[in-house]
Design goal:
There is one protein chain. By secondary structure, this protein is of the alpha+beta class. It has three domains: 5-149, Lysozyme; 176-222 and 263-302; 223-260, no CATH class. The chain has helices spanning 5-15, 48-69, 76-89, 91-95, 98-104, 108-115, 131-145, 181-216, 264-300; strands at residues 18-23, 29-32, 35-36, 120-123, 126-129, 226-228, 231-234, 242-247, 254-258. The chain has a three-stranded antiparallel beta sheet with strand order 1-2-3. Strands 4-5 form a two-stranded antiparallel ribbon. It is elongated and about 115 Å long. The two termini are 44 Å apart.
């Protein structure tokens, strides 16, 4: 199979015509319609007719490569697009490309999409996207997907070729439930809610126990009487627990030492702060879920 004049026109529009040798953005000496090789030297000049001859000569191995690597039948537009593609990236690169693998599996849409991935080049030692390549890949993809003598299919069993069947919108969906941002946000919100509920329940139980102890007279303050090695000591005039056991050598009176520990109020204050943080996380997760649903509706219409 040979490339058509339409395919050559597409290739020429992106390769451009240069009658004097130059270095492309990758530093490769080039002349004519993108012709490269050992025969291109600095200062070399050719005519437009010579450039056309070089192009026709260069197209032959690219056409053979497409015939060799493609194991499925191709229409003219598909072949033209692939020849232009191979002319740019090289035969070996096409042989190992995802586009070729998808094409040979019969996934023509996937193959067309894979063409567009080849839009980067190493410039100055850095791999970056090149706008000219992006436009070229888009044009090749469009040509690849353009029907060549569109068939009129009356057999309903030939679904792949039938373009007259009434279509139904089926927007893209995420690969799995785990990829759903709605599920992710709901999971975070649910985890935070469970943690806040558990913390709140524990706090209520502790407060109820404190009230029970106070009502029964087992604990009149938040500070239970401390015990040292010699037994209970008691509390000072402010109600704080003290530890005895030491005596003033001058007065002979016991020296009281206060026990420094956080009160129940301080503990519950910290727990309240944690609960507040968890409730904020729940609210943020809910907002994220709402945003995710809106974004899915906008992009996926579902």
């Amino acid at each position: 199979m040979r490339i058509s004049e339409r395919g050559i026109g597409l290739l020429k529009s992106f390769e451009g015509l240069e009658l004097e040798a130059y270095q492309d953005i990758a530093g490769i000496w080039t002349i004519g319609y993108g012709h490269t090789g050992d025969d291109v030297e600095p200062g070399m000049r050719i005519s437009e007719r010579e450039a056309e001859a070089l192009l026709r000569k260069d197209l032959r191995p690219r056409e053979d490569a497409v015939d060799r690597f493609a194991s499925v039948s191709l229409n003219q537009n598909e072949f033209d697009a692939l020849v232009s593609f191979v002319y740019n990236i090289g035969a070996n690169a096409f042989g190992g490309s995802t586009a070729r693998k998808r094409l040979n599996r019969g996934d023509r849409i996937g193959a067309a999409d894979a063409l567009t991935w080849w839009n980067k080049a190493t410039v100055g030692g850095v791999l970056r996207e090149v706008f000219g390549l992006t436009r070229r890949r888009a044009a090749e993809r469009a040509l690849f997907l353009t029907p060549s003598n569109p068939p009129i299919v009356r057999d309903p069993k030939k679904i792949a070729e039938n373009s007259r069947i009434t279509p139904i919108e089926d927007s893209p969906r995420r690969g799995s439930v785990g990829e759903s941002r709605t599920v992710q946000g709901a999971t975070v919100a649910g985890g935070a809610g469970a943690a806040a509920s558990t913390l709140g329940r524990d706090s209520v139980e502790e407060l109820n126990q404190m009230e029970t102890n106070i009502e029964s007279g087992h604990s009149l303050t938040e500070h239970p009487q401390a015990k040292d090695r010699d037994g209970p000591v008691g509390v000072d005039e402010n109600g704080n627990p003290v530890i005895g056991g030491e005596t003033d050598t001058q007065t002979g009176e016991a020296i009281e030492m206060q026990v420094d520990r956080p009160s129940k109020h301080e503990v519950h204050a910290v727990e309240a702060q944690i609960q507040f943080a968890l409730f904020v996380l729940i609210i943020l997760s809910a907002v994220f879920v709402i945003y995710a649903r809106f974004d899915d509706w906008r992009n996926y219409r579902r």
